[in-house]
Amino acid sequence: MDRHDCGGWLRISIHDERVNEARIRLSHRHHKPYVSISMTPEQLKTVYDMRNQSPSKIWDYILQHDPNTELTEKQVQAEWTRINQDHWRLDTDQVKSATMLLERLEGADVEVFPITPRENASAIAFGFKEVLTGLGETVEEVLMDSTWKTNALGYELYSIVAEMNGQAVPLAFMFVTLLESAQEGTKGALLRQFIQAITHHCPNIMFTLSDKDILEIDGFRIEIPNAKHQLCYWHGIKYIEKRLGENRPPAAYDPRIAHAVFDFVDPTWAPGVTMSWLEDGVHPDDAEISEPPETLKIKINLATLTAEAISIPRVKTVSISFFPFGT
């Protein structure tokens, strides 16, 4: 869009004694009219004629026939939404509209999960009937994730996705919102009901994954107690990289507690306290520092074919000196 240096200025003056009054002076020189980027009648007709296709395909079509257009993809998306909104917007109330739409599709395409109403909370849960019926018993691994502020009403969207032949297959979704006055534990109870509905269709789940949301973790552990739960790989790497990038000391650490859970953890180790020949936290295999040379010394009795170690180095690759005695 062409722009014009109008040389305009705006000045606002306030008198020291009359602070409730302001003097405003504005200077502006006329310039050429801005280029209109509203959709032309031809473009509007194109979007309407292609309303049954995705907005991205409509946008590709417009660029193919008019590569220098001032139009934007967001305008195409907005017009496509306006034309098609009557198919899914059945009421001006978003929650009521979504409920009506699911009721219309229930039985053929979706299954609406019964969620117990709770005070100061709202939840809508549903699953894809064809996927749950056709693949449910073969599902062994599921993952739960969520998004924040999905719509204008601030609903959270929870999804449960299955792993099938290395691909993600969406099974079900739940919209949840809570008021500040909702009782503690309300969201956790809603999530457990959501997971419980999935277990009716997927009874053979062996692995569950999530991020570090304790409500998701507890929900899986309670409703699918025999499955192994773990953080998904992507979230695990994300948290490790984030923590390593922070310039702050680690939290208080009691190695005895860690050792009680995982016995391979050295209970005598503590960050910044336990030191070796290298700085704490540096593994010899990862350091570009050669360890001080040491020699493994062994006495060998050739007559009795016995050996006795004099000193033992701390490296895997060693040189050996023999000190034979006897005949």
From TrEMBL:
Residues 142-238 form the MULE transposase domain. It comes from the Eukaryota. It holds the Pfam family MULE. InterPro entries: MULE_transposase_dom. This is MULE transposase domain-containing protein.
